[in-house]
Inverse folding.
């Protein structure tokens, strides 16, 4: 049932491609789901994928296109004429077609659009190209089933049959007025269980959730998830029904958001995958490492300032990485919880309450850890009483400060409109390293007086 | 349109509760979506939420229950008799009802089940209780529309009308044989566009995706996402149709998985939220901090071993946090990419290729960073040539080792069946801190000969 590409299958396909054995290839791929074929494409060399693409039916290849990674899709499309691309897009839903067109170079874009056969379809696609990919307009498809509030159910069913031909999944039937303004909805189930003689205006549900064309993707996702919706209509500034967003698009948005946040927390600033090129991976990773390196310069400089302590209290320097590590870990924990709370909209209460809570929490954690540190440094490491006093006091202070930084930096970023996820990962560990070391040696100076 | 709870609304509701003004409360909440009311519940004190719960209609409260956080739900249910709980559950879909029952204490569980009115519903719920919550059986609902392959379309439509009454969203109509074995599916759309005189066996689609009752949740999510499914049938060991999983459940699974991975990467080991109690938060955070602390002990001990270097090369100790931080950051980046690749099933190629790639990548990053380190420590920090040689060599070596650890530890964990996400966050930073320091001072010893 669950399809996994076997090594044998891949080898076989590669052999057939080399032998240009189109017949065997067609037999092999004929029964496969387009998502599986797309997965095979990703495993092949681009020239092999292009070869396969050309021998497959355009009904199949059209479905494969949106599933591919952008760079492979680009390579395949480069080998096709504008007319050939247009033929593929004629088979696709408007949202997928618009996404693919928007990736083409400007010149080819226009050529492809002029080659589209179905004029209505072409108009819809051009309309979608106007919207940003991060808003509902860029996510929606034009395909939907709508009926006029003034119709009878009989007209409605007839009309719907025609409309439904072009819609992959119906979900809801939207009700509009003569100006195409969204008025309500009808569920397919209602239609299935209602007598055909009823009048539309009597049966439709006036309460209907909708989003606007400029509603951000993540907000659309939040609404659809909260209200368990499988499709949501999109209206323009005048309240006219212009499209709908379906749950499968939202699943992709959620996946991308989660991946992005996860990567940011790990200090990776672009959407990359393990199989991307070394150059892409470096571009995504290096900036954060450079940031951390400059943070490191500051900590080197700071430690140099406390050089005087080395004469009588060299152990202090042995404990520096421990203190820095604890500060980093606590900061990442606090920021992660806040970033998630902001993303899931589950933060409540005032800033002051949060401050009190974070201080209590880190005091509790700090004291427990300080006790372990006390026992460990006394029995395991054999440190002196004064040093132990210094490091335990420093640990508790550092933990409190680190958790406060971890809590309030993302909140601040969010306030000023910057993605709070930037505040996790290298940024927070680096700043906590620096703060931690500064606090640690300041306390040491106070207690030990060097 | 998008509902946000205003402070004023909350204050108003709290006032009405205090005044026991049930009439106003009903007016206020009457028009609201149950998901919004659930959100209000979360903002109230438990006794207030319980009060509201009791004055609302059971049709509404039943829908609210599955939306609540587990601890609030528990508090509310504690105030209800078994009969009252059963009345709520009678209104719910089998999957939600089973989830709620499974949280009850054993004794109450049995009482509630015996109080359920609809026997068929009760049987379905009990059946669902057998499955683990992490597998398809624990995720599925019993509500679905199925028809027998031997029926005519006419019988089918009649039967479906009855069945559809109990099913919130129809999605697909499943076709079974006399033994209830899944044979194929019919789409609602096909039914809408096909003449009613056709025979079932002529129109149904024999190819149907399905999962088994013991298929893990994450695998179900992967399949539904890959094939863009909105519902998938679940079969038992004998191939009999026992339920279906719908996309809204999958959206929740994906959200939970993403949150869990994100938290693990940040060193938080349970599913917690910013608004959880200090004790819950400590339980989730402290273990990782203790781990990091013990890692710290090792680094303190190791640094002590290199005490001899302090006499002539004290700058070495100033650079320790910098080296440790770079090791930590590189390790987290590498592991995050692997963990995501494993989760998304996008890792390809052999281990050896991955090794080569990771070494080249970190060599490239390492050399660039070493050049910056060279310039910085020469011009900004005024370090000596020998020290600069030491720290740059150490930086490159540490980056290579850290990225190899970050790459292969999660791969190894995955191999032996442990969640690779455990290898990100504190675990990888701590072990990289230790390795980094050891490599750094070993190289220093080699070059400077102390």
């Amino acid at each position: 049932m669950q399809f996994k590409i076997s090594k044998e299958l891949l080898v076989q396909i590669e052999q057939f491609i080399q032998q240009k054995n189109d017949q065997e290839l067609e037999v092999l791929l004929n029964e496969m789901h387009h998502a599986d074929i797309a997965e095979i494409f990703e495993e092949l060399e681009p020239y092999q994928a292009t070869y396969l693409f050309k021998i497959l039916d355009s009904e199949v290849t059209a479905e494969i296109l949106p599933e591919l990674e952008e760079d492979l899709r680009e390579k395949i499309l480069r080998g096709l004429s504008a007319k050939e691309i247009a033929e593929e897009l004629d088979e696709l839903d408007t949202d997928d077609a618009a996404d693919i067109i928007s990736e083409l170079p400007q010149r080819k874009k226009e050529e492809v659009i002029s080659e589209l056969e179905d004029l209505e379809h072409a108009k819809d696609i051009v309309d979608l190209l106007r919207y940003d990919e991060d808003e509902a307009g860029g996510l929606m498809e034009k395909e939907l089933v709508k009926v006029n509030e003034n119709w009878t159910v009989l007209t409605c069913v007839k009309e719907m049959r025609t409309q439904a031909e072009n819609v992959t999944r119906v979900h809801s039937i939207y009700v509009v007025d003569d100006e195409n303004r969204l008025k309500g909805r009808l569920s397919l189930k209602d239609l299935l269980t209602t007598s055909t003689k009823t009048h539309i205006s009597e049966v439709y549900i006036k309460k209907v959730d909708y989003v606007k064309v400029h509603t951000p993707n993540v907000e659309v996702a939040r609404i659809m998830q909260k209200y368990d919706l499988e499709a949501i209509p999109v209206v323009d500034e005048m309240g006219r029904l212009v499209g709908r967003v379906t749950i499968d698009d939202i699943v992709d948005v959620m996946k991308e958001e989660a991946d992005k946040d996860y990567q940011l927390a790990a200090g990776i600033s672009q959407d990359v995958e393990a199989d991307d090129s070394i150059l892409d991976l470096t571009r995504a990773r290096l900036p954060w490492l450079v940031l951390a390196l400059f943070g490191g310069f500051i900590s080197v400089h700071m430690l140099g300032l406390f050089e005087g302590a080395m004469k009588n209290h060299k152990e202090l320097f042995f404990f520096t990485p421990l203190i820095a590590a604890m500060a980093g870990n606590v900061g990442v924990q606090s920021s992660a919880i806040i970033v998630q709370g902001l993303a899931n909209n589950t933060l409540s209460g005032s800033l002051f309450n949060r401050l009190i809570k974070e201080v209590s929490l880190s005091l509790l954690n700090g004291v427990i850890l300080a006790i372990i540190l006390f026992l460990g440094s006394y029995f395991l490491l054999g440190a002196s009483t004064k040093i132990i006093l210094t490091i335990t006091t420093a640990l508790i202070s550092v933990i409190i400060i680190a958790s406060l930084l971890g809590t309030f930096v993302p909140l601040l970023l969010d306030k000023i409109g910057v993605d709070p996820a930037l505040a996790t990962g290298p940024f927070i560990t680096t700043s906590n390293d620096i703060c931690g070391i500064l606090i640690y040696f300041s306390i040491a100076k106070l207690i030990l007086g060097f």
Chain A has three domains: 7-134, 145-256, 278-448. Chain A touches chain B through 117 residues (CB under 8 Å). Residues 98 and 125 of chain A are 5 Å apart (CA to CA).
